[in-house]
User: Fold Alkylation response protein AidB-like acyl-CoA dehydrogenase from Petropleomorpha daqingensis.
Amino acid sequence: MTAAGMAVPIPPAHEAFRAQVREWLAAHLPPGGLPDPDTEEGFRAHQAWERTLHDAGYAGISWPREHGGAGGDLLHEAIFTEEYERARGPVRITRPSLRFLGPTLMRFGTPDQQRRWLPRMLRAEDVWSQGFSEPEAGSDLAGVRTRATRSGDEYVVEGQKTWTTYGRFADWIFGLVRTGSAGDRHRGLTCLAIDLRSPGVEVRPVRQVHGRTGFAEVFFSGVRVPADQRIGGEGEGWTVAMTLLSFERGPDTGGPVRSEQRLAALASDVLADLPPDAVPGVRRELGEAAARLYAYRAHTYRRLTAQWGGEPAGADSSLVKLFSSQLDVDLVTLGADLFGDARLGGGTPEHLDYWHSRAGRIYGGTAEVQHNVVADRILGLPR
Ligand SMILES: Cc1cc2nc3c(=O)[nH]c(=O)nc-3n(C[C@H](O)[C@H](O)[C@H](O)COP(=O)(O)OP(=O)(O)OC[C@H]3O[C@@H](n4cnc5c(N)ncnc54)[C@H](O)[C@@H]3O)c2cc1C
Assistant:
């Protein structure tokens, strides 16, 4: 009994769950995939697919039943994620909701907020996005400038968010806004749930380098947000945001599966398409990548075990992110070096993969920032 080819012991009941998931996916995955979620039609198709997953008990697998989840544990969730990636299931537009926004609401939301939002997140009736980054506040998140001013029972929001994944078609944004003065930095921040259909919200799609438009810039002018949509206390936004990021950076067992698929595809292309005398040098590089993949998977499972034991994501999640994102960049770069630009033509899966791998070193905290965390908190180096 192993986790995806390595010696991680998995209890028999969980292996039975894996078999059940495999069988269900084989029978229910949409043949031929779904249309691009960056189009209206594709997004709605993904929403319907999420509903199918929910109805089969595969949304919020480790969420408590009181919040509408399946009541499983982290290992059930991890196994489902592995099998879903292995079967190349459609991208999950509920990923932000299910992985980090919902769990943060469970921690900081009022019972009314939880009843109002969590079940709709699970069924993808409402799709949520994360509104942290701004043009002047990315790595320096405490520099957020979008302002929320209290006016009776409401906040009035002015400002701009950027790089909002799924923002184009999302219903809600989990926004980090400034309620105190700019000089307060971390202490002057608050989290608000903002309905993206509110008057004064303007969503502008951002066209990316590979031609897709899934990101959005979100502008707020005089947007009135009921005060009961504040998540956590006023001025508590930094604590809420850091908790959210610790969920976001938690172990993702889908990552090693995706890297393994990249590596396997590259190895098979090398064997099929390169002259035999070119193969030995490349074989060494592929062997190194396989060793790194093994370490990545081991670290992912180690983090999962730690999280199961109640240990929050710590500085070592920065190590895993650094390590895994660099592995993906190296694999697609090796593919591009070996097979040239032909396969990177616009719109091909290789083309998308090439650019997505670059994004992995940016979202959820850039590689440079992760290096700082490792230097500071793991190695204890002076700043
Ligand atoms: C695919 C993708 C999805 C995203 N989705 C979302 C989303 O849904 N919601 C959201 O809010 N944001 C999202 N983001 C934004 C992401 O969080 C930011 O891009 C990231 O935090 C970096 O911020 P920035 O782009 O402003 O770069 P900057 O912070 O301006 O950084 C620019 C460069 O300076 C370097 N740098 C900055 N500070 C330091 C430092 N202290 N030491 C060393 N180097 C430093 C950085 O590493 C980088 O190379 C997404 C980004 C990507 C790529």
In short: The two ends are 45 Å apart (CA to CA). The chain has a mean pLDDT of 92. The first strand starts at residue 128 and ends at 131.
